Amino acid sequence: CYGLSFVAVSTNPLPYSTARRHESVSKTDSLVSPAFLTRRTRCFRASRVCATRSESNQDATSSHPSSAAVHSAGNVRKISFCQWCGGQTKHEVPHGEEKMRAICTVCGKIAYQNPKMVVGCLIEHDKKILLCKRKIEPSYGLWTLPAGYMEIGESAAEGAIRETWEEARADVEVQSPFAQLDIPRIGQTYIIFLAKLKKPHFSPGPESSECRLFALDEIPFDSLAFSSIFVTLKLFIDDIRMGKLNFHYGTINK
């Protein structure tokens, strides 16, 4: 199960839409309900939703007790050996820090574990959304937006374009950021961009068994791979219903 909290920034200057004003909005979807308004942001607290599927990070969580280090908000891997010299590590709080770290007993280097960035594209074409059916684990056989881990040396937008090509063989143009979704417990941040097809061509890449355009009322919400994709699509549909696209920031508390 996970809880959701959102901030839709009403001052976001999307190039082809008008920012949402501060009047009250009645949500037609039960996922998110208005909680309170501030002068420049709209905040939402979502109802509790059940999910059994993991996010993209395959090694970020584990039910094994040795996989969790103390002094951490989420689950992190317990590192036993140094990645630089191979020496055995000890786990303690370094001087001047507050969290437990893996420290090499040979070379003294500290192994820091940082969140991973997942980037992807929400592609609308002919009033339909492009989804890919996963051909790999996790969430084999379920639908997702084309997305994956950022690589060193590329921007978030470049990574989203690359992942879209790898998973859907689609050449896209990024138009604007749409959502940033943090999942602290598993150390992930999703950045999803609105994008357009440069050419109306797409086909499954090596990690996909099928690629397909779905009308908004045909999106298979019961067969989506990840909670982050579920939330992104719900937010997009809500914005379309309101006639105004916004940038959304949210935290998924799994």
Can you tell me about this structure?
With 254 residues, the chain is mainly beta. Among the domains are: 76-113, Ubiquitin Ligase Nedd4, Chain: W (Single Sheet), CATH 2.20.70; 115-252, Nucleoside Triphosphate Pyrophosphohydrolase. Helices cover 11% and strands 35% of the residues. The protein contains 2 helices and 14 strands, in the order ββββββββββαβββαβ. The protein has helices at 156-168, 227-242, and strands spanning 3-9, 32-37, 41-46, 89-92, 101-104, 110-111, 116-125, 128-134, 143-144, 147-149, 172-183, 188-197, 208-215, 247-253. β2 and β3 (41-46) form a beta hairpin. Mean pLDDT is 79; it is low at 10-54 and 57-73.
Provide tags for this entry:
Ubiquitin Ligase Nedd4, Chain: W, Nucleoside Triphosphate Pyrophosphohydrolase, 11-stranded mixed sheet, elongated
Which band does the percent of strand residues land in?
25-35%
Radius of gyration over C-alpha positions, nearest whole angstrom: 20 Å
Please count the helical segments: 2
Low-confidence stretches: 10-54, 57-73
The CATH architecture of the domain at 115-252 comes to Alpha-Beta Complex
Keywords: Hydrolase
Protein name: Nudix hydrolase domain-containing protein
Organism: Citrus clementina
GO molecular function, one term: FAD diphosphatase activity
